[in-house]
């Protein structure tokens, strides 16, 4: 637990403008190493060699590789995409997710070593806040706002992992994906026994121009359908948990399904 607190303090530190070796210089060098070799190729020794210092000198600024990866993630995220708050939610969300995709194309290792216990820094939380604020402007209840944000994040990382795996395979073998599959004549000669697969192959079914854009559009179509459903029943579902509300026969309609949800909503507004 103490170590986690140290990681938080390091992540949320003020910038160090002093000359010489500093956490910022170490992080910049580590990003360059990870961009070239992925997280699998990242070590304190390689970063030290990249900087021209001894490995031990790095530990005076960054206590461990784990701390270093935390800092790297937050450094490359930088600020969220510019947001036009007057635009429709779908366009705003598309811009935000595309921005995340561009970051992951430049730094595919962002998707590696996923964990529910990664400690977020200020930039990571700014991106998350941005995504949540767009979704919170829709009729989706709070639990679904958080769920959709998580789904979009996992989609981004899954697409980035495909880039990581392709780059790793090419780096380790010296052979591109196209060269690898092109040399598998023995496999292609057996494909005719699978008629659906063969027909799809022959009609261009596997020629996807942009899998990321297709996946994003499909996800946003689902979110749009969910929002339309919620919009039509917003007076019948709890504004806090999304559960059904038993409305009174007369008088003011209820916004919450229970006193507990009403209190939770009040506490969240007071923060």
TrEMBL record:
Any one Pfam family match given in the protein's UniProt record, by short name: TetR_N
Gene Ontology BP annotations: negative regulation of DNA-templated transcription
GO molecular function: DNA-binding transcription factor activity; transcription cis-regulatory region binding
InterPro entries xrefs: Homeodomain-like_sf, HTH-type_TetR-like_transc_reg, HTH_TetR, Repressor_TetR_C, Tet_transcr_reg_TetR-rel_C_sf
Keywords carried by this UniProt record: DNA-binding, Transcription, Transcription regulation
Residue ranges for the DNA-binding region feature of this UniProt entry: 43-62
Keyword Transcription applies: yes
Ranges for domain HTH tetR-type: 20-80
DNA-binding in keyword set: yes
Coiled coil: none
Protein known as: TetR/AcrR family transcriptional regulator
Organism: Lentzea tibetensis
């Amino acid at each position: 637990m103490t170590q986690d607190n140290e990681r938080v303090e390091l992540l949320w530190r003020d910038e160090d403008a002093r000359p010489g070796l500093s956490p910022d210089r170490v992080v910049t060098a580590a990003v360059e190493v990870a961009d070239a070799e992925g997280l699998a190729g990242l070590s304190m020794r390689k970063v030290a060699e990249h900087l021209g210092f001894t490995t031990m000198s790095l530990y005076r600024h960054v206590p461990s590789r784990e701390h270093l990866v935390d800092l790297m993630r937050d450094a490359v995220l930088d600020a969220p995409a510019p947001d036009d708050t007057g635009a429709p939610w779908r366009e705003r969300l598309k811009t935000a997710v595309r921005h995340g995709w561009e970051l992951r194309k430049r730094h595919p290792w962002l998707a590696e070593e996923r964990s529910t216990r990664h400690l977020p820094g200020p930039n990571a939380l700014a991106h998350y806040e941005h995504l949540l604020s767009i979704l919170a402007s829709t009729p989706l209840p709070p639990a679904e706002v958080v769920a959709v944000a998580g789904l979009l994040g996992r989609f981004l990382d899954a697409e980035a992992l495909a880039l990581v795996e392709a780059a790793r395979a090419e780096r380790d073998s010296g052979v591109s994906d196209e060269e690898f599959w092109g040399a598998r004549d023995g496999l292609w000669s057996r494909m005719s026994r699978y008629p659906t697969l063969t027909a799809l192959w022959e009609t261009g079914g596997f020629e996807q121009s942009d899998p990321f854009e297709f996946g994003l559009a499909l996800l946003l179509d689902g979110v749009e359908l969910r929002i339309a459903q919620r919009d039509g029943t917003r007076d019948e579902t709890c504004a806090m948990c999304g559960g059904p509300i038993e409305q009174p026969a007369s008088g003011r309609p209820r916004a919450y399904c229970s006193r507990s949800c009403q209190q939770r909503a009040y506490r969240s507004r007071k923060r």
